[in-house]
Amino acid sequence: MTAPAFRFELLATDGAARRGRLNTAHGSVDTPAFMPVGTRATVKAMTPDAVRTTGAQMILANTYHLMLRPGSDAVEKLGGLHRFMDWPGPILTDSGGFQVMSLSSLRKITETGVTFRSHLDGTAFELTPARAMEIQRQLDADVTMVLDECTPFPAAEDVAAKSMRLSMRWAELSKDAFRERPGYGLFGIVQGSVYPELREESAKALRAIGFDGYAVGGLAVGEGQEMMLRVLDQTVPHLPADRARYLMGVGTPSDLIRSVARGIDMFDCVMPTRSGRTAKGFTRRGEVNLRNARHALDPRPLDAECGCLACTRFSRAYLHHLFKAEEMLAGMLLTTHNVTLYQDLMAALRAGIEAGRFTETAALWESGLSRGDIEPL
Which of 4, 86, 254, 258 is most deeply packed, by most CB within 10 A? Predict the structure, then answer.
């Protein structure tokens, strides 16, 4: 059976907000979409079935971590990432640029790529654009990301310019090395820190190379929401309207709403899963810390409008007890809830765009998120 062509369909717009569908070799993804992060071929504290029940259609895995353990050769021999982790749907793999940025004491960047030592055992590795493409092919990623240098924040303009232009050269080398296959796509990554002229230069360079989708990288690294949104305002207009737009590593529910309003189609972030393991719940009325003593005797659900297992079967008091007792089920239930909340938000935004009511939908969610938790008993 021939795989479908890799294609982004723009189905509706409302202002700058877009409702679309990304078609891949392993199925389609309705956008705007949030991808749960499965860095090491698992979404932490969730089974694949649990991830599917949240409504998630696509997940993210990470090239850097999987090349170190168990190794891309092993994953390929075992049938690829979809079979290895029992996720038959689409998978996007981050090329490892962000992780390499965080290894400043263990890596060396050159024109041809980056050499680094494993944070696990000190083994030396070299990651070039061509090697990054090959690893992601072995993993069988539906969406492959170019190798880039994620510019740290803050960065002086000359430093950001040098970093961005290196990433653009790597992007061209990544495109040259990428193996075209039906249903599989390659995304470029816009860099340039917080400087409008650099972001525009980067976007134009990537468009000249030509990619199946375009990501905005180098944000959510400490610049704050106001600056992030300003960078999006300066960057998104330079991206092609007929390709998916992916904002990497973002963010809070408010970040997602305001970025969709600016024309972003895809997101990933560890926030809902990491927060779920540390007792922070996201609800339609803001954030909740389930370690707080006021939940100890509260029989109400975490979010009365949520249909997840944590909210339909258990009380706040029980979740509080699990965290205080340091039971594994605590993180499992709250992570499932948080990912469900993010998927519910995305579904609501898609419906709002389709109905021409995105502004009202966004305002309703923003209002709820800022109201604060329900009154204590």
Answer: 258
